[in-house]
Write a structure and sequence with these properties.
This protein is α/β, with parallel strands linked by helices and 432 residues long. The chain has a 5-stranded parallel beta sheet. The longest helix has 31 residues. This is NB-ARC domain-containing protein.
Length: 432
């Protein structure tokens, strides 16, 4: 009989006495519970500060913060806010007593002790959370241009793209040069080629570098490596070149070199001569670049034919210029000043869009004035179009924005889309 009753009594005690004891402990130990919570929260605060320091360093290095870390920091913020709200010194003192502090408030003390104990469990869990990985390397940038398509929807450009694509698919050509004067649309065309190559999965990886007139091989190496997500751990040009050559030989890669003014020693940079695995797509104003490469192929890009130039100008400036009998001859004269250069057409069309006839006439007068000056690599009509776009901005803030963006985008000086985007941003700012 005793063997039967004893377990029953133990269970009754477990389910009736134990909860009472726990509640009693919350009442009589409320001060120690609150003090322990405060101590643990301080440890959590220290850990949070350390994590935040690592997060800031990771962000400075353009790394992606681990989602688990961001979630942890948010949980920490919430628990600390709750602790600050519920356990302020004056709040605790007020809840622990009643009748202006003459008598203890048993219910308030029990509530404080119980709340402190529960929050301490949450804090302990946050302290124990493993945050070994604070951040991850950011995904490397992708070569290609989502804004391309502006000036290539013409047969003169489509045929060039088809021919370049054929050269990329073959195994005989290693260097493909897109040649033409500044403002002709070389970089925009290459952007479309890259996008098509990506769609057709011709290459496994794509990388690029913008080449400056003052040649900086180290910068070219860094740019190429960045798009590949390759950390260049070696010191010196030759060591880094070896690292790049190994990486570029492992898979089918397209290397885009934009704005090349003179021939480069590809091997010295780290670009292997291997048409089957690594191809180089170059834009240049100089048709003689890479003459020494036996596997080179060159494509010349000319100005837009008159019909294509008018179609582009009409698309950018607005279709109304064709139907307005007074405006059309003015628009045609302005277009003639662009001499078929896409960058000039796009820039002027954007600047004159939705403008009245007086402004169109004024623009034509300005373009007819003789231009004195020489900017290497830039035709005078391109400069005049850019200058006119700048002059049409209505506020100092917009003009400042235009100037700053052009300075930042100096390496893209010869791409139509950069000027179009720059003008659009500055123009939008001028309306506010």
């Amino acid at each position: 009989m005793e063997a039967i009753i004893s377990p029953i009594v133990k269970k009754i005690a477990e389910y009736s006495v134990a909860p009472v004891v726990r509640q009693f402990c919350c009442l009589i130990r409320y001060k120690s519970n609150v003090a322990h919570l405060t101590n643990q929260v301080q440890h959590l605060c220290n850990k949070r500060d350390g994590v935040n320091m690592e997060v800031e360093r990771a962000r400075d290095a353009l790394m992606r913060i681990d989602p688990g870390v961001e979630s942890w920091l948010e949980e920490v913020r919430k628990i600390m806010d709750e602790k600050e709200t519920y356990f302020k010194e004056e709040t605790v003192a007020k809840k622990a007593t009643c009748c202006n502090g003459l008598f203890p408030n048993l219910n308030g003390r029990y509530s404080l002790g119980r709340k402190a104990k529960k929050m301490t469990l949450v804090v302990d869990n946050l302290l124990a959370r493993d945050l070994a990985t604070i951040a991850h390397s950011a995904p490397h940038p992708e070569v290609g241009d989502s804004s391309s398509g502006r000036i290539i929807d013409f047969e003169s450009r489509r045929s060039t793209i088809r021919n370049v694509m054929e050269a990329l698919k073959g195994n005989q050509i290693s260097v493909i040069v897109i040649c033409g004067m500044g403002g002709i649309g070389k970089t925009t065309l290459v952007g479309e080629v890259v996008n098509k190559a990506r769609e057709e999965r011709i290459f496994d990886e794509y990388t690029m570098a913008v080449v400056t007139e003052t040649l900086d091989l180290s910068k070219i190496q860094r740019d190429v490596a960045e798009y590949l997500g390759l950390p260049l751990k070696e010191e010196g040009l030759e060591a880094r070149a070896g690292q790049l050559r190994k990486r570029l030989s492992d898979t089918r890669v397209l290397v885009v070199l934009d704005n090349v003014w003179t021939s480069l020693d590809l091997w010295k940079i780290g670009i292997p001569s291997c048409p089957k695995s690594c191809k180089v797509l170059v834009t240049s104003p100089n048709q003689d670049v890479f003459n020494e490469e036996e596997t080179r192929k060159i494509f010349h890009i000319g100005v837009l034919p008159e019909s294509d130039a008018w179609s582009l100008f009409k698309k950018v400036a607005g279709g109304y210029i064709e139907s307005d009998p007074e405006l059309r001859p003015i628009a045609e004269q302005i277009l003639s000043k662009c001499e078929g250069l896409p960058v000039a057409i796009w820039t002027l069309g954007s600047a004159l869009r939705q403008k009245n006839k007086a402004i169109w006439k004024n623009a034509l007068g300005l373009l007819q004035k003789p231009f004195r000056g020489d900017i290497q690599g830039m035709k005078k009509n391109v400069y005049q179009a850019i200058r006119l776009s700048y002059d049409f901005l209505e506020s100092k803030e917009a003009k400042s924005c235009f100037f700053v963006v052009l300075c930042i985008s100096k390496k893209h000086l010869y791409t139509c889309r950069r000027f179009g985007d720059t003008w659009a941003r500055a123009r939008a700012l001028s309306r506010h």
